[in-house]
Design brief:
Layout lengths: L1 E6 L3 H16 L3 E3 L7 E6 L4 H17 L4 E6 H5 L10 E3 L15 E3 L19 E5 L1 E2 L10 H5 L3 E2 L2 H9 L7 E5 L7 E2 L2 E2 L1 H8 L5 E4 L9 H8 L7 E3 L7 H7 L5 H14 L4 E8 L6 H14 L3 E6 L7 H5 L5 H24 L3 E10 L2 E6 L4 E5 L7 E8 L5 E5 L1
Parallel strand pairs: 1-2, 1-3, 3-4, 4-5, 5-6, 7-10, 10-13, 14-15, 15-16, 19-21
Antiparallel strand pairs: 8-9, 11-12, 17-18, 17-20, 18-19, 20-21
């Protein structure tokens, strides 16, 4: 019997889906992460925005086009949020917790939303076959930003034991050249109640694989953390430091627990120890309280930081969040116009950042029609022409900067 496990949303979802595929293969199923003909489809959904939920529902129809008689099973954040939204075209619905349990419901019809756990569920293990391995170290979130539904769907922050993380890393194939630590709030990784992300990174540095962090919060960045980070041999100097707005007034309404001064201090500290660090961020355009003055302040601050890349999202009203209850949404046209302005800033700053680089170390991750693609340590997407192998690490010189990919030449 064939099972297709399809993933929407974040890297945490991807890790969990890969773990499910590994388990399915272990017990005898033919399992894939591709949307193709299958007897069973498992859709791991996302609810970070209304659009993400719509795409999660849309995936049901796409599965039926491949096999109208297939059984379809739903799990993840969208089903945790509203389990009944998927209607009668699916066989079984569960939520965020106990994702491996979906297998035991393959012959059932209905839904079962498990209680969110208080401790880290350590039954997920993903068989890594790519050059870059995502390793989940944390789940849940305690921040409760006013615009975000995720803490209500994923539960409170909880961390995986350091020994469990190390055990998974030790099992990685030699072909894996880079480890990306992922979680809902990686910054809050703790052991025995104390922050321990830098301790974990120091433990992992000896395995000789490039180390990369996913999104982090401003409150993680202090002198001790950055100094210790700078001493690691294999750390990739790419910091995805979530901003959301460059206006202090809007940050306060978002319940973000820092000011623009705090954020700029973190950026300066990073650049003090990492000359060519890639610093990327998320920005929400058109938060309900964002005035024209707030938006102008936000744009000026973003220009001041000079991010290496921006991920820009129009504000999405999420039922159940504080913002949805107390703030009136801005017109869609206003949000879209602000997205356009931010996109122009992004293009200029991204190209300026790439031009500051000369020699880069690239991990080749894929090949398409004789052209090879990969990322530099500071997260520039690079393209090379020539005779290379996927998984090879190449020293190269930047020839031509590009927004989608940057042309490089092996030294």
């Amino acid at each position: 019997m064939k099972v297709a496990v399809l993933t929407l949303g974040c890297k945490v979802n991807k890790y969990e889906s890969d773990a499910l595929i590994f388990k399915l293969k272990e017990i005898g199923f033919d399992a894939t992460d591709k949307l193709e003909y299958a007897d069973f489809y498992v859709i791991n959904t996302c609810a970070v925005t209304n659009e993400a939920e719509r795409k999660s529902r849309q995936m049901v129809e796409r599965c039926h086009k491949f096999n109208n008689n297939a059984k379809i099973f739903i799990m993840g954040c969208a089903s945790q949020n509203r389990p009944l939204q998927f209607g009668e075209k699916v066989n079984f619905v569960q939520g965020v917790a106990n994702k491996l349990e979906i297998i035991s419901h393959f012959q059932e019809i209905g839904n079962k939303i498990y209680n969110l756990p208080d401790v880290y569920e350590d039954d997920l293990y993903s068989a890594q076959t790519l050059t870059r391995a995502f390793i989940k170290i944390q789940d849940g979130c305690n921040n409760f930003c006013t615009y975000c539904i995720i803490p209500y769907l994923r539960g409170r922050s909880r961390s995986r034991s350091m020994e469990s993380v190390i055990s998974e890393v030790e099992k990685l194939p030699q072909d894996v050249k880079e480890i990306v630590l992922v979680g809902i709030d990686v910054s809050d990784y703790k052991q025995n109640g104390k922050r321990a992300l830098i301790d974990l990174l120091e433990r992992l540095d000896c395995y000789g694989k490039r180390l990369r962090l996913s999104s982090m919060e401003d409150n993680l960045i202090d002198e001790d953390f950055v100094v210790r980070l700078s001493k690691l041999k294999n750390f990739c100097p790419h910091f995805h430091l979530s901003l959301q707005s460059g206006s202090d007034e809007v940050l306060k309404k978002m319940n973000r627990k820092y000011t623009t001064i705090d954020f700029m201090n973190s950026v300066n500290l990073i650049r003090k120890y990492f000359k060519n660090a890639g610093i990327t961020t998320d920005v929400i355009a058109g938060f309900p309280t964002e005035t024209e003055e707030d938006f102008e302040k936000s744009c000026e601050f973003i220009k001041k930081v000079n991010f290496s890349d921006l991920h820009i999202f129009p504000y999405s009203k999420r039922e159940g969040t504080v913002a949805s209850k107390i703030y009136k949404d801005l017109p869609k046209s206003v949000k879209n116009e602000r997205v356009k302005v931010l996109e122009e800033i992004k293009k200029k700053d991204k190209l300026n950042f790439i031009k500051k680089n000369d020699i880069v170390e690239i991990l080749i991750e894929e090949e398409k029609n004789g052209v090879f693609y990969g990322y530099s340590k500071n997260y520039i997407r690079c393209v090379l022409k020539g005779n290379f192998k996927v998984g090879e690490i190449v020293q190269a010189k930047i020839i031509e900067s590009g927004l989608e990919s940057t042309l490089c030449e092996k030294i």
